[in-house]
Amino acid sequence: MYLMYIDESGDTGHNNSPTDHFVVSAIVIHEEDWLNVLNDFIKFRRAVKEKFGLKMSEEIHAAPWLNNNPNLYPPISKWDRMVILRACLKWLNNRSDISVFAVRCYKPANRNKDVFDLTWEYFIQRFNNTLEHGNFPKGRKNDRGLVMPDNTHGKKLTKLMRRMRRYNIVPSKLSTHGLGARQLNVKLVIEDPAMRDSKDSYIHQLADVVAFFIRMNYEPNRYVRKKGAHNFARKFLSKVLNPHIVRNTSLKGVKEV
Known about the structure:
Elements: E1 2-9, E2 21-30, H1 34-52, H2 62-67, H3 78-93, E3 98-106, H4 115-132, E4 145-149, H5 154-166, E5 169-174, E6 178-183, E7 189-190, H6 202-218, H7 222-226, H8 232-236, E8 254-256
InterPro entries: DUF3800
Pfam families: DUF3800
């Protein structure tokens, strides 16, 4: 079974929203590799603690770290916080037992749609399809997957996933009739979403960093652009982003909606 740790960046609102993009990102690990990944990341966190003083219990949280004062104790400079976030991406990029992908919704192009439902539908469908074709590490076709989001929008996401198992119309291109649609029920994603609080999950904290820098690829804030960090996802996730998720997008492994 594959475990998919998920976090979001941006918001789903249309009116008075500070963001034009909403991103849902995933870190996918097979159950057989889970403990090894966790133990290796604990070693990484210990190295970060030794160098920067970041406590093992402190949450790595990209947006507050770069947009606000996170009140860390002992204090860590903003630049050093950026260095830690970059190191998280580099750590992920060196793993052969992890797969990363995301869906990015450009909200101005989807003003008449529910951004949450639209983005998550694509996201869950891509997870199911990639499981079906064996395009995650270990290459196991038709293995099952468990969705493990950060603890937000739980009821809405549960309702959506239950519906996609029973009724899921997916647009498709038909060679003779133009645009059409197919019924593609989600069969390989098991159970309701297993909600987790990111402060209690190191891997969710990594998913947070991934989601933030994928969004910064599309709409960097002033500090990120000044420091050249808007290219972090492209530069430091190039090997771990899953190329089978989608073709012909501006950023490999990211479905653009």
